[in-house]
């Protein structure tokens, strides 16, 4: 039997999702409970491996089990044993052919920035403080240069081990909030530190330090040094994971073509 968990977590006190040599991780907390229940190790498979300090409003993991529990009992078993910064929001049985990572066709991230004369200690770990004045329109215009299918080598960590760095960005918006700005991006997938590097560049554009029109050339250069710094992790939220084309279509304009395995093969060949 294959079980799918939907969960949310505050990443402030985690070393990331994936198990590390030292420090707390979300994966460890989930597998710890499964090992206690099964009396043997059970591996979980996530849709996304968020970095240290990154939060998730929606994350999926699946695992295989011989235990015959209802979704309600699975949810209770986890939530009664998990720490307060992780919560299972739903549980369902899925076909054994389904895989949380490989059947994910898109993700949405949101990055939160707040401003003010002083840093707000109550927002430590959950939003990024940016005290400099920003111009909204140039950031909004610059964000549109990321749209489409590109090799994002310039906008991912040099430590990225994946060889294929081509990703599709469907939508990228920048909005002014009551006390700052929010950057919302939807794409087919994202590379290591990719969202944080793109946001950092847009912040530099908003401050007048960089030009948005330079983004196409930076993408084409495939050179990490061209893009600049990486924004702090604390402002980043994995907001949504799309497991079907119908779910993704709900959040995108009707004229945007969604890249699936089928039409990607057509485009590539």
From TrEMBL:
> Which reactions appear under catalytic activity for this entry?
uridine(38/39/40) in tRNA = pseudouridine(38/39/40) in tRNA
What are the positions of the active site?
51 (nucleophile)
SUPFAM superfamilies xref list:
Pseudouridine synthase
Q: Which Gene3D superfamilies match?
A: Pseudouridine synthase I, catalytic domain, C-terminal subdomain (3.30.70.660), Pseudouridine synthase I, catalytic domain, N-terminal subdomain (3.30.70.580)
Residues holding substrate: 109
Which EC number(s) does the record attach to this protein? 5.4.99.12
Top-level enzyme category:
isomerase
Q: Does the keyword Hydrolase apply?
A: no
Gene Ontology annotations of biological process type: tRNA pseudouridine synthesis
Q: Which residues form the signal peptide?
A: none
Any one Pfam family here would be PseudoU_synth_1
HAMAP family hit by this protein: TruA
Report the family membership.
Belongs to the tRNA pseudouridine synthase TruA family.
**What is the stated purpose of this protein?**
Formation of pseudouridine at positions 38, 39 and 40 in the anticodon stem and loop of transfer RNAs.
| Name the record gives this protein | tRNA pseudouridine synthase A
Q: Which gene is this protein's source? A: truA
């Amino acid at each position: 039997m294959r079980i799918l968990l939907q969960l949310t977590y505050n990443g402030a006190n985690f070393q990331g999702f994936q198990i590390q040599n030292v420090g707390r991780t979300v994966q460890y907390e989930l597998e710890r409970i499964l090992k206690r229940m099964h009396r043997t190790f059970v591996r979980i498979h996530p849709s996304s491996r968020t970095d240290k300090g990154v939060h998730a409003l929606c994350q999926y993991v699946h695992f295989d089990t011989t235990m015959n529990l209802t979704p309600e009992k699975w949810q209770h078993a986890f939530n009664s044993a998990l720490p307060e910064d992780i919560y299972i929001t739903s549980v369902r049985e899925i076909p054994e052919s389904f895989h949380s990572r490989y059947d994910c066709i898109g993700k949405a991230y949101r990055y939160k920035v707040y401003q003010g004369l002083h840093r707000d200690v109550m927002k430590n770990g959950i939003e990024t403080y940016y005290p400099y004045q920003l111009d909204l329109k140039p950031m909004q215009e610059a964000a549109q240069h990321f749209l489409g299918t590109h090799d994002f080598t310039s906008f991912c960590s040099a430590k990225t081990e994946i060889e294929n760095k081509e990703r599709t960005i469907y939508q990228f918006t920048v909005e002014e909030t009551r006390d700052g700005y929010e950057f919302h991006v939807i794409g087919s997938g994202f590379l290591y530190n990719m969202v944080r590097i793109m946001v950092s560049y847009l912040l530099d554009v908003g401050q007048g330090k960089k030009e948005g029109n330079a983004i196409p050339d930076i993408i084409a250069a495939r050179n990490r040094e061209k893009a600049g710094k990486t924004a702090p992790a604390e402002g980043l939220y994995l907001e949504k994971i799309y497991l079907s084309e119908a779910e993704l279509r709900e959040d995108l304009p009707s004229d945007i073509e969604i890249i699936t395995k089928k039409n990607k093969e057509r485009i590539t060949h």
